[in-house]
Design a protein that fits this description.
Blueprint lengths: L1 H26 L2 H10 L2 H5 L2 E9 L2 E6 H14 L2 E11 L4 E10 L3 E11 L2 E11 L3
Parallel strand pairs: 1-6
Antiparallel strand pairs: 1-2, 3-4, 4-5, 5-6
Amino acid sequence: MKKLLYIGVLLFLVFSLSQARSTDSTFNSIEGIVTVFQSGSSRELAKYFDSGIDININGNQGDYSKNQAELVMRDFFKKFPPVDFQLLQQGSNTDQIIYYIGNYRSEETVFRVFIKGKKEDQSIKVYSLDIVKGIK
C-alpha cells in the first residue's frame, strides 16, 4: 500500500514539474513577448525586462529601471491600446544577443517595434525597446 502511495506522489510531482517548465518556457520565449504586446499588459511585459532598460518611444528616450519601464509602457498601452502585434523578423548577433522587429497596431496608428535582448539562463532579458510611429 505504501508503494502505491509513493508511486502516486512521485507521478504527481513529475507531472507538476513538467507543467511548471512548460509555463516558464512561455515566459522565456518570443511567443510570450508577442502575446504580451497583443494584450497590452505592461506588468507581464516587465517580466522580460532586464534590471535596466533603454526605452525610446518616438524620440522620447530614457534609461529606466524595471519598475519605471513598466510605468512607461503602461502609459503607452493606455494611450495606444493594442489591436494586433505581428513579429516580422528575428535574429541574433551572437549566441547571447538577440533582436526582434514587429508591428504594433493600435486603433489610430501602426508602430514599428525593435526589441533587443540577451539570452540568460534559458530566458530572454530585454535591455532595449524602440517604438517608432509608422504610417497606417
